[in-house]
Fold this sequence. Notes:
By secondary structure, this protein is an all-alpha fold. 70% of the residues lie in helices and 2% in strands. The chain has helices spanning 2-11, 28-34, 37-68, 75-87, 90-100, 108-115, 130-156, 159-167, 172-183, 185-200, 204-209, 224-233, 238-263, and strands at 14-15, 23-24. Strand 1 and strand 2 (23-24) form a beta hairpin. The radius of gyration is 22 Å and the shape is globular. The two termini are 33 Å apart.
Amino acid sequence: RFYPTGNAIVLSFQEWNLLEDREWAGLENYAKLVADPVFWKVFRNTFMYLILGTPISLVLSFVIAYHLDQVRFMHGMLRALYFLPFMTSAVAMAWVWRWFYQDVPIGLFNNALASIGIPQINFLGSTTNALPAILAPAVWAGLGFQIIVFMAGLRAIPRTFYEAARIDGVSNWTILWEITLPLLRPTIVFIVVLSSIGFLRIFDHVFNMTTNNPGGPLNSTKPLVLMIYETAFDSFDMGYAAAQTVVLFLILLVVSLIQLRLLRDR
């Protein structure tokens, strides 16, 4: 674990094409990164996945878990069905959703829109629609895991708190805000940090849903991990790819520390 990390940091200060000897380049790769307009576009995309994906998945998973926890009929079956997408191959899932997004008469969504007289939408070929279209299956895929974690957190809250609140005539809304959410803080911190890391490292969905044009139209969906992949294995510029990797590592570290700081118990 530590050797590849240290080696990548050293490589970010070198030039290497996998065949010839490494050559020391100093800060050249980082200077190239700062001056690269594609990098800043990709940097923005990566944070868009984070800023949109994390809160949406957090709210959806909590709402589903909160209501599912109160269901008794077929509870185990419903929980398994919600968890199923998390176990599904990301590649297979991405290609199925890619089929959903196709134009009429192939795409499921556009066929549904056409049946009610709404013009079809260019989901993956539009600079404005492509990123949300890829984010949707990414959020959906991770819901199952977050729901299970939330349900475990809900089950860990002692029932005596709720019984005392109901004896005092406290409303369900007050119970949610004053008892459930504060006691779920460790669970929320865990899910937020893990979800944020996942969205910052998003790759499978983007790569498989935009194979004809990797990164989408005008790089509108390209995340940093895909840029690293293309730099390393298409351009064989391993030093520049390592510099991008170090930047991604620093982003992950800073975002995680900030979240842990903001969400920690007081």
